[in-house]
Amino acid sequence: MMRRAFTGSVYQFMYGRCRQFVPSICQLTGFHTSIVNNTVSAKKFVFSKRFNGLPQHDNFSLEVEELPELKAGDVLCEALYLSVDPYMRPYSLSWPLGTTMKGGQVAKVVESKNDKFPIGSLLVGYLGWRTHTVINPDIKSKNFMEEITQLPELGSLCPSVGLGAVGMPGNSAYFGFLEICKPKPNDVVVVSGAAGAVGSLVGQIAKIKGCRVIGFAGTNDKVKWLEDELGFDRAFNYKVCDLKSSLKEAAPNGVDCYFDNVGGPLSVAVRSHMNDFGRISVCGAISLYNDTTPTLVPCVEPAMVFKQLKMEGFLIHRWTNRFQEGMSQMLTWIQEGKIKIKETHTEGFENMPQAFIDMLKGGNLGKAIVKA
To answer: Kind of pairing, strands 343-347 and 367-371?
Structure first.
């Protein structure tokens, strides 16, 4: 049976009687799947070579995959926005070569055999680095990275926010900071990777909770953005500042909470400046992901013991059953103007690898997004 992008008597007639014009019709309707010999194909990026240091273009191969016919309950999704995130770098250590690169996307349903997900529905889930996917959203998985849900009503916000502040990064900031650091009014909070997708949200949540917020980022422009637009009390370029003196200047009475996205020497400096019974939430260690040799830093135990610190890492799926709570609260804060969001968009699916590389090099302000 023929595959079609959408229903309608005029299109059905044209599709059935004028098959030679299907590619141009699909182009006009915005349905960019290639249809050859009555089959639908999708582009996808495959993890084809192990990373050695910073990812390179030859670590990925662009392939074409023929998709199956839809069965009852299936939908055909077309990617609109795709996410590139730091976690992809360390997670890749467990991926077999030939695996389609994993990652989230906001997708539009362009063909459906599922009444709950009609044509035009917007879905969000970990469909990977691919332009089109056939999936049954009703089939639930214990693995949260296989969960597919409809995008919540976002008002005037761009749907890409479902990959950022109203998605996994937003929940990472919300739960990772509030549940582990448990901030109190007037606490001094330090955020590393503060201009990134998660860090920029953590700092603003801390301000909502009445904290003094200090951020570290990698460029002077990011520092200016944190202070002038996001309301951080102080921000520093960790690449040029003296870490110890900057912390002493910005937090003369010590640090109560630290949200760590980067690890390495910066985290050593922050831990040594923390107050007794300080709380540390470890979201990531992006400064170490591309190291070809281990980074040597002073051991963590002296600060942990003598300052009686609490340090806890997390994976976001810990709070899967509360995701709607986090997304709802983040959306409310955005609509109230209490949280400002920023996204760095890269145009074109073929530029996924470059967007990933740029993000790992700190080229993004806020969330890194690829517009398909």
So the answer is: parallel
Can you tell me whether residue 264 is helix, strand or coil?
helix
In degrees to the nearest 10, what's the CA dihedral of 18, 21, 22, 28?
-130
Task: Collapse the DSSP code of 123 into the 3-class scheme (helix H, G, I; strand E, B; otherwise coil) and give the result.
Answer: strand
Distance CA 218, CA 204 (A): 18
The two beta strands, 188-192 and 122-125, are: unpaired
Separation of alpha carbons 282 and 257, rounded Å: 11
**Per-residue pLDDT at 38 exceeds 80:** no
CA distance 125 to 167: 9
12 Cβ contact list (under 8 Å, min separation 6) = 4
Rg (CA), the chain: 23
Q: Label the pairing between strands 234-237 and 212-217.
A: parallel
Sheet architecture: strand order including 188-192: 234-237, 212-217, 188-192, 255-260, 274-282, 310-313
- Residue 312 makes CB contacts below 8 A (sequence gap 6+) with 180, 279, 280, 281, 282
Instruction: Kindly report which listed range (9-18, 233-242, 354-363) carries the lowest average pLDDT score.
Output: 9-18
Average pLDDT over residues 363-370: 98
Strands, E, within the chain: which ranges? 34-36, 39-47, 60-67, 75-83, 99-100, 105-112, 122-125, 132-135, 148-150, 188-192, 212-217, 234-237, 255-260, 274-282, 310-313, 343-347, 367-371
Please name which of 2, 42, 43 lies closest in space to residue 22, comparing C-alpha atoms: 2
Q: What is the dihedral of CA 159, 165, 168, 171, to 10 degrees?
A: -140
Q: How many CB atoms lie within 10 A of CB 216?
A: 30
Number of Cβ within 10 Å of residue 249's Cβ equals 13
Q: Which residue has the higher pLDDT, 44 or 31?
A: 44
DSSP E strand stretches across 105-187: 105-112, 122-125, 132-135, 148-150
Percentage of the chain beyond pLDDT 90 is: 84
Predicted local confidence at residue 143, as pLDDT: 67
Say how far apart CA 165 and CA 343 lie, in whole Å. 10
DSSP symbols for 312-363: EE--GGGGGGGHHHHHHHHHHHHHTTSS---EEEEE-GGGHHHHHHHHHTT-
